Amino acid sequence: MAMELNESAPVMLDQFTRFEEASVTVDNVFRYHYTVLHTNNPDSLLENRYQSLRENILTMLSTNTDLRIFTDNEVTMEYIYSDEDHRNIRTIRINPEDYH
Length: 100
Hints:
Blueprint: H1 2-7, E1 11-12, E2 17-24, E3 29-36, H2 42-63, H3 68-72, E4 76-82, E5 88-94, H4 96-99
Parallel strand pairs: 3-4
Antiparallel strand pairs: 1-2, 2-3, 4-5
């Protein structure tokens, strides 16, 4: 699935967020990598959006049948946000117990 997502990357998702790539770790973590752009304060932007982003992720994991592969295999999900200088701003981690 990561390879399929990476075929279209990078891609702008909204005016501030660019999807860079997806990756998978050996310890069953699926990672989405994003860059936050066009803002002087990416930390604040993510802080303000954190709760809604987390809720949207959990809703998608529980309702989107395309994501069933993750829930059936108890995959940990990480959404990693970096600024334009590649500095990690925030990581949203969703563990299997969060969506079961």
